[in-house]
Design brief:
heterodimer; A: 173 residues; mainly alpha; Arc Repressor Mutant, subunit A; three-stranded antiparallel beta sheet; 8 helices; B: 227 residues; alpha/beta; Rossmann fold; 2 domains; six-stranded mixed beta sheet; four-stranded antiparallel beta sheet; 7 helices; 34% helix
């Protein structure tokens, strides 16, 4: 969904060829995941059908020489998408919660479950920290977003570790 | 496993009244590595740091630095060690308010007999490295919180200690300033080869470490010592 809005938004500064659009997307948003050409062209075909882009023909066109331009309807769509707040993701820690409760119910070490998860979270946080200190501002912002989310998980792990006795008393028959 | 450790604690016990602050805590720190001590408030992580640094003496157990038993040293031997081999960064309030930032950073060098001129030159280089050269002539009270912590980091590292003890070094700072302090601190520590024992309850701060050790109820769960 957001790939299509991102491509559409990139056209606001002027018409582009498909390959140029892909390159700009990869440079700006791609990071680890660059777009396939196929995805660019299928997205453009859909946007064309919906009237959000139009094709500017060039003399001697082959299929790769199509230049895509955003329409007024496309601009309105991008504007609405940017302005619309995202629904906050409700991540209920369900898998981890299940593991902890099951460990308690079956007499396994629930603290160990939380500890090894913490180590795994920290390992990833270290990797992101290294990556952002070696990168540019864009890397830093992208990694920070992930780091803050991981940190929130970790706070849940801490709190749950501190409440294990109470949780055990509640879930055990 | 412990033979490579530059600094180690073995089975430390220490109580404050009825409260067992350390209850069999062990930790090993190798030269040049950054270890984060994590754990909830009251878990004993700061007490462990103070024992490792020779500020507190455990009731039982052993702290060894470079093969020497800290617990068997005299007070003056221990303070000599703290001055010569260790550096400290606390949450706040560690700089001498009457001295300028430059004089604060130069202080450890002056105490170990470096001439005033040389000490000030080296201190100035350290302030530049921590990107706070512009506060050299200011008193700590005239610097911002983030600048003050970077001055404190410069002071902790200026005498090329082999271990820096940092207790919640970013605890009083906002995310952006905390981030900058950690980035410059860890880069400088890695460059000089100092080991860092970092007490923090913040995962984003701990993420600057090479590994973490979790302190809970006065005991340490040390992450895999290898790597």
């Amino acid at each position: 969904m957001s790939v299509s809005f991102a491509l559409l938004g990139l056209l606001e500064n002027g018409p582009r060829h498909g390959y140029d659009l892909k390159r700009t997307y990869d440079d700006t948003f791609g990071r680890d995941r660059s777009l396939h050409y196929g995805q660019v062209y299928s997205t453009m075909a859909r946007l064309l059908k919906n009237g959000h882009v139009e094709v500017e023909s060039e003399p001697g066109d082959g299929p790769d020489r199509k230049r895509y331009a955003i329409t007024d309807a496309g601009i309105t769509d991008v504007a609405e998408w940017i302005a619309r707040p995202e629904k906050p993701e409700l991540y209920l820690q369900s898998t981890l919660y299940t593991k902890v409760v099951l460990a308690l119910l079956t007499g396994r070490d629930a603290a160990e479950v939380l500890d090894s998860q913490r180590a795994e979270h920290l390992r990833l946080m270290r990797e992101l920290t290294r990556r952002k200190s070696a990168g540019d501002l864009a890397d830093e912002l992208i990694c920070d977003h992930a780091l803050f989310h991981l940190e929130a998980d970790l706070r849940w792990l801490e709190l749950t570790a501190a409440r294990l006795d109470r949780l055990a008393a509640q879930v055990k028959p | 496993m412990t033979d490579q450790a530059l600094l180690s604690a073995e089975d430390l016990h220490l109580s404050f009244g009825e409260t067992k602050a350390l209850d069999g805590a062990s930790l090993h720190v190798r030269a040049g590595e950054v270890v984060a001590l994590m754990g909830p408030s009251g878990s004993g992580k700061s007490t462990l740091l103070h024992c490792l640094a020779g500020i507190l003496s455990p009731e039982s157990g052993r702290v060894a630095y470079a093969g020497r038993d800290l617990t068997a040293m005299s007070d003056s031997e221990r303070s000599g060690l703290r001055r010569g081999e260790f550096g400290f960064v606390f949450q706040f309030g560690q700089l001498v308010p009457e001295l300028t930032c430059l004089e604060n950073v130069a202080l450890p060098l002056r105490l170990s007999g470096t001439s005033r001129r040389a000490a000030h030159r080296i201190a100035g280089e350290w302030l530049d490295r921590l990107e706070v050269g512009d506060v050299a002539g200011k008193r700590p009270g005239q610097a911002s919180g983030g600048q003050g912590q970077r001055v404190a980091v410069a002071r902790a590292l200026v005498a090329k200690p082999r271990v820096v003890f940092a207790d919640e070094p970013t605890g009083a700072l906002d995310s952006l300033n905390g981030e900058l302090v950690m980035k410059l601190f860890i880069a400088a520590a890695k460059e000089t080869g100092a080991a860092v024992v970092l007490v923090t309850h913040e995962a984003r701060v701990a993420a600057w470490s090479d590994r973490e050790a979790v302190v809970r109820d006065g005991k340490v769960r040390e992450q895999e010592y290898a790597r």
